[in-house]
Amino acid sequence: MRQPKAGPRHTHFIGIELPPALAEVVEDCRSWMEGAYGCRSGHGTPPHITLLPPFALPPGYGDGDVAGCCAEALRQAAQKGIVPLPVRVEGFGSFSERTLFAHVADGEGWQQLYAGFVRVFQEELPGALKKPGRRFCPHISIANRDIPAGSMEDALRHFAQLGLESSFEADSVTIFARTRDGGWAVGGHLGL
Question: CA separation (Å) from 141 to 19, 27, 29, 192?
């Protein structure tokens, strides 16, 4: 059996939490996936759009540095008129058979916000982030990693019936921090 790569454990990630009504819909979808297919992966965090995926802090840096980077990236985004960012959620999709998500309409604002956060974090916390590869794809995960093979098509058919449409303005980010038991907890909120 192949051993996982050794390396620093992910300590933080950055997300955009959802307004209560949309978060409730997402929680209902997560509950349906758990009841129908036993899916539990990712349910330990409030519903959110991941802006920066989990990363490990370099030695000598702490929570305050993460908060400082977020504040600076938000400040720069506000100066450029990127935030508040209009967010439109419409329907559901998947990344092959591994992730089922609520679809967030992509746009140049998302790409600029992501690029700005990456730039600030790379400058202020060198080595924390992996070099970006693919294009940033905003989405709201419903289930991932523990979806039984062959169930995605049925799940998407079920969720299509919901006719999900929602919109809001994102003007804050949430810092999620690793807990001692290996889960994730909200480590702070930063807004304009």
Answer: 15, 10, 10, 25
Q: Rounded to an integer, what is the distance from CA 18 to the centroid of its chain?
A: 11
CB 176, CB 35: distance < 8 Å: no
Query: Exposed, middle or buried: residue 177 (CB in 10 Å: 0-12, 13-18, 19+)?
Result: middle
Q: How far apart are CA 145 and CA 95, in angstroms?
A: 11
Backbone angles phi, psi at 66, to 5 degrees: -65, -45
* Ranges of H-type helices in the chain: 20-37, 63-79, 108-124, 152-160
pTM of the predicted structure, to 2 decimals: 0.92
Q: Which residue in 174, 166, 187, 169 sits closest to 26, CA to CA? A: 166
pLDDT tens for 112-161 read: 999 999 999 999 999 999 887 889 999 999 999 899 999 999 999 999 99
The answer to whether 69 touches 52, Cβ cutoff 8 Å, is: no
